[in-house]
Amino acid sequence: MVSRVIPVDVFDLVVFGGTGDLAQRKIIPGLYRRYWGGHIPPESNIIGAARSELDDMGYRALAREAIAEYVSEDKRDPEVIEAFLARLSYVAIDAKGTDGWDVLKTRVRKGTVQAFYFSVAPSLFGDLAERLHLHEIANAESRIVVEKPFGRDLESAKALNAVLAQHFTEAQIYRIDHYLGKETVQNLMAVRFANILFEPLWKSEYVDHVQITVAETVSVDGRGSYYDRAGAMRDMVQNHMMQLLCLIAMEPPYHFDPDAVRDEKLKVIRALDPVLPDDIVRGQYQAGNGQGGYLEHCEDPASKTESYIALKVHISNWRWKGTPFYLRTGKRLRARTSEIAITFREPPHSIFDDAEGWRENVLVIRLQPNEGMNLKVMIKEPGPGGMRLTQVPLDMSFAEALGESGTDIPDAYERLIMDVIRGNQTLFMRGDEVEAAWGWTDPIIEGWEKRGDKPMPYDAGSSGPEDALMLMHRDGRRWREIRE
Q: Is 240 a catalytic residue?
């Protein structure tokens, strides 16, 4: 199967924070890969903007190093690299002052798609937005891309939205969540809404429960002071995992249209029940395997911030009433994996004597590693020993099922930046969606802060705190094993 190459329109993309970590690891390598793949017209321009005193050649040297480090060797074509680097330029700019803005104005062309990527701290969003208009660089068709965190609570999220709204309309603002750019996340919508097989079963009558797991092996060492101000709830649940929950639980939109999809996601967030204290487990990883523990990495021996959280969530609507959603995420766990597992109910009546051999039907959507889907079904165990049941997987890894096109799955940032250029907001969060998510999250955080709850310790390299196992066991269920 060969994927189609659909180039975007000619564009000028300004990357504020163009010398930063995100730009070097994701944005520049991702743009190169799309240029290598034929999606970016050669007339397009990419302009780095930051405080560093660099010229165009210095910035291209940085970009060359980023491509060498973060792009696989099979895509590093010397001629393509040189052609791509020729499209890059740099402007030294003062986000809070006047230096560099007149120069930037001469670099951004009229009549092209104009996009401005705010790969900077949220505290600078307002300054950048104001100066883009003050110096008449942006216009009514320009687009801005803003990175998370979108605030740290409802109040700050509203303030951030208000600042951006002073200079840009909602249709111009692209709030990026890289989880929504993953191939499997988008395929979740295709599986649900393009196949009659699943959608009739996608409700509480047939679904016993849903598990969403985002497990990481890395610690917070090196960024502990930042992470300690956020924690797993703010860093992962309020945004990434909330988006996954919405895509699983939402009603079919009337059309695959940005606002239609986001309207349905918003309804899910507003239907979320408050989470009871007994349905929350928080943890902190301990030292082990030659590495320090969370308290050491965050440099605060009295920290009550969680590096792990598990929650039991209910959605009060007709489709999902009575079906629990179990969410868990954490650092320094056994393996790096992200997956969604939809476990279906058992048949109302079994005609087979081998009842103990029965296992649930489970649809597993793997986000990382090895993106793909796996449906576990019951069949007869081969052999002459009677009707014995066994569970087998119907496995679809994208790399195997789609051949060459399956092995060249774009990075999430590549896809999302191309969507910005195309003007497609389907995979980006709307302002009211962000605020609704914080409106649900804030009382949970305020609750454990008022109670003075302390996170439970867990061993590095484990599956998390023991209490998280009990969260499932008391319901007669079990977490899926964390493994790559």
A: yes
